[in-house]
Amino acid sequence: MEGFDGKVQFVWQVADLLRGDYRPAEYRGVILPLLVLRRLDAVLEPTKAKVLADRDRLIGRTSNPDALLRRAAQQPFYNTSPLSFTRLLDDPGSLAANLRAYIGAFSPSAAEVLEKYRFDERISRLDEANLLYLVVGKFADLDLHPDRVPNHAMGYVFEELLRRFSELSNETAGEHFTPREVIRLIVNVLFSEDTPVLEGTAPVRSIFDPACGTGGMLAISDQHLTALNPAARLEMFGQELNPETWAIARSDLLIQGQDPERIVLGNSLSADGHPGDRFDYLLANPPFGVDWSKAATAVRNEHQTLGTDGRFGAGLPRISDGSLLFLQHMVSKMKPLSEGGSRMAIVFSGSPLFSGGAGSGESEIRRWLLEEDLLEGIVALPDQLFYNTGISTYFWVLSNRKSAERAGTVALVDARELWAKMRKSLGDKRKLLTDEHIAEITMLYHEALTLDGDDDRVKMLPTEAFGYRRITVDRPMRRRWEVTEDTVETVAASKPFRNGKDVDHDKVLTALRTLIGTSEQTETAFTKQLLNACTAQRQVGLPTPVKKAILSAAAVPDPDAAVMTDRHGGPLPDPDLRGQENVPLGEDVDEYVAREVLPHVPDAWVDHSKTRVGYEIPLTRYFYKYVPPRPLAEIDAELAAVEAEIQDMLGQIAR
Fold it and tell me: pLDDT for 225-273, tens place per residue?
């Protein structure tokens, strides 16, 4: 794409005209829609006369000439204005009005994009600053005719400008912009298994991003496939919530000659923009840890009414993080194996790896992925790689067409130490991936089967390795009953006592005070003492709720007391001594308890009715390396050297 760097530089220099009247963060909102306009005008130029002639011929003959005019334009869009971009400059005094009329003459799909840019407001502001003629004139000099700038090259120009604008505006970069080298890595891994097929004769593949932002992941996927095979075609689909970034993504498709209708505006979770569609590839970088309460009603309704026939049948994560909802949505868009199957990649923070215990929504989603053998691998990336967060990130690769060798396994790749330091930080981004890093990480993932055991950055594990049984370990309840001042205060404040009917509260409290210092080893003996004391205060009998409140307040744990039993003679469990243990799925629970629990607490037992199966992926644990502490002598010597240096500095100050 070297020959088109001049186009990028030319457009970039237009920003110099805006300097002073606009903040750098605002340049994008002016320059990108004008670039789109200029490209659309150049693309439509060869068929302009035909479109105008058909427009005149169709007036009064049809109420919806859209399809016929698109056919005349030989594009998925058209413009019915007699003006062209260059002819707008013929009447400087009416430029603003003519530009608005020219934009209004675009077909609905193109006009909607420009509307979401809020370009009408920008026309007014440029006009008031006496910049409109200068800026439009600059773009009129830019030759973007498809014969000189093919679609893929135009996509490169647009993406490079978008990258520069995003880096120029750190405060917005992270919201809608994934670092391009990270996308390249993900795309490399996503396509790595299919290179021979993609190099075939003019293959056509589809790709979908449900949180596409400005469309960067889709665009770089397209560039990657074209580099593999210029005859290949990647049909791009997406959905985006933010209107402006949706407009940018749709613009990218427009200027590359793809159908802009494939980028849908809206919330992917609450309103699927591509119902029933399935894709060859899927990829996304959904927002990290974003609350999904706005989509909660629709998501929960689909979960409850459709179950596994819907998108969210595996489970619902906590409301504070919808990452795993995007994953389930994407899995629902995978082609069945009978149609060739699909592969997908999604960027996550560390939370989806392990958040939520056994039985939680997160754990159940992980369980579904692993038991269905959909998870192919996870790559741990360096921290400080993204613009708006310095946290460690990971990308998961899923497939419903794993190779026979990878079936039933998950590849883990530790790429946390593969990075280069940036010369200048951009927001929270202080590290980057070089071409060498991208190639190495792609190799580690692609060759994981052969590298496992030879390279400590790669692990191949069976899917069941991530499963466990969460068992509940109980111990018997042992209590004695005694009355103290605290016991009386606790009873007086308890709700059952305060709400007790047919009871004289003062008399009961007085009776309790007469028992201060009393201690009994059994509940029966203490109850007898209590009732006798109440009778002495002329309070005959106690309502059951009041009696339970007093017995609870007087009960004190005592490891030497007798075991309390239920009516069948079985030991009662002590909630205060209850614990949980995670037993790997492949291990017998009784053997685990005998080895790990009973030697320490011989009276413990497992309440099997409370056992839950859970799944987590403690990736960093698998790559943990023990580093022994430095010898004390070495540390002492270092401290002595620092102390001597400080004393020397103090001595110089004194002199």
Answer: 988 898 899 999 999 998 878 888 888 888 777 888 899 999 999 999 9
Closest CA to 336 of 281, 274, 405, 401: 401
Pick from 193, 263, 213: which is nearest to 235 by CA? Answer: 263
Rg, the chain, Cα only:
35
Nearest to 416 by CA among 376, 379, 460, 459: 379
Angle between helices 544-554 and 505-514 (to 10 degrees): 30
The string of pLDDT tens digits covering residues 36-63 is 899 999 999 999 999 999 888 887 677 6
Helices (H) and strands (E) in the chain, counts: 28, 18
Structure tokens at 494: 């308890």
Average pLDDT for 557-580: 92
Tell me the DSSP string of 379-446: EEPPSS-SSS--S--EEEEEESS--TTTTTEEEEEE-TT--EEEEEEETTEEEE--HHHHHHHHHHHH
User: How many Å apart are CA 160 and CA 166, to the nearest integer?
Assistant: 10
DSSP string computed for 521-557: SSHHHHHHHHHHHHHHTT-----HHHHHHHHHHHEEE
Task: Give the whole-angstrom CA distance, residue 353 versus residue 589.
Answer: 24
Spatial contact of 184 and 224, defined as CB atoms under 8 Å apart: yes
What percentage of the chain's residues is helix, strand, coil (to nearest 5)? 50, 15, 35
Sign of CA pseudo-dihedral 397, 223, 76, 103: positive
- Residue 169 and residue 545: Cα distance in Å, rounded? 65
For residues 216 and 159, the answer to whether their CB atoms sit within 8 Å is yes
* pLDDT at 189 exceeding the cut of 60: yes
Q: For residue 29, give the nearest of 134, 100, 135 by alpha carbon.
A: 135
Rounded to 5 degrees, φ, ψ at 128 are: -65, -30
379: left (phi over 0), alpha (psi -120 to 50) or beta: beta
Give CA–CA dist 91/88, Å, rounded: 7
Output the six-digit token pair for 30. 């002016």
Specify the 3-state DSSP secondary structure of 490. helix
CB count, 10 Å around CB of 309?
Answer: 9
Q: How many CA atoms lie within 13 A of 579 on its CB side?
A: 13
Which residues have C-beta within 8 Å of that of residue 449, sequence separation ≥ 6? Answer: 405, 406, 411, 460
Q: Which two tokens stand for residue 566?
A: 């239920």
299 close to 269: Cβ distance less than 8 angstroms: yes
Contacts of 623 (CB under 8 A, 6+ apart): 380, 412, 414, 456, 457, 459
Amino acid identity, position 157: V
DSSP per position, 576-645: GG-EEEEEETTS-HHHHHHHHTTTT-TT-EE-GGG-EEEE---HHHHT----PPPPHHHHHHHHHHHHHH
